[in-house]
Design a protein that fits this description.
- This is DUF2508 family protein.
- By secondary structure, the protein is an all-alpha fold.
- It has one domain.
- The chain contains 3 helices and no strands.
- The longest helix is centred in the first third of the chain and has 39 residues.
- The chain is rod-shaped, with a radius of gyration of 17 Å.
- The N and C termini lie far apart (about 40 Å).
- About 5% of the residues have low confidence.
C-alpha cells in the first residue's frame, strides 16, 4: 500500500516537471519575442508597451524558474529541470 502512494507522488512530480518544462520553454519564447519588440520599436508611442511587455515576460520566466528550483529541491534530482532551464 505504501508503494502505491509513493508511486502516485512520483507521477505527480513527473507531471509537474513536464508542465514546468513546457511553461519555461513558452516563457522563454515570449521573452525573446518581447526582447525583439523592444529592440526594434520605432514609434515613440509604443516604447512603453514594449518595456512593459518585456518586464512582464521576464517576471513570468523568473517565477517559473523559481518554481522549478523548488521542485528540484523537493525531489533532490540534480539533473532536474531548473538546471536544464538555465541552459
Amino acid at each position: 500500500m505504501l508503494g502505491i502512494g509513493r508511486k502516485r507522488r512520483q507521477e505527480v512530480v513527473d507531471e509537474t516537471r513536464l508542465r514546468l518544462q513546457e511553461d519555461i520553454r513558452r516563457a522563454r519564447k515570449e521573452r525573446d519575442i518581447a526582447q525583439s519588440l523592444f529592440e526594434n520599436v520605432v514609434e515613440f508611442d509604443r516604447i512603453d508597451h514594449a518595456i512593459y511587455t518585456l518586464e512582464a515576460a521576464e517576471k513570468k520566466l523568473d517565477i517559473l524558474l523559481r518554481e522549478a528550483k523548488l521542485l528540484l529541491g523537493e525531489t533532490g534530482d540534480e539533473a532536474g529541470i531548473a538546471k536544464r532551464a538555465v541552459l
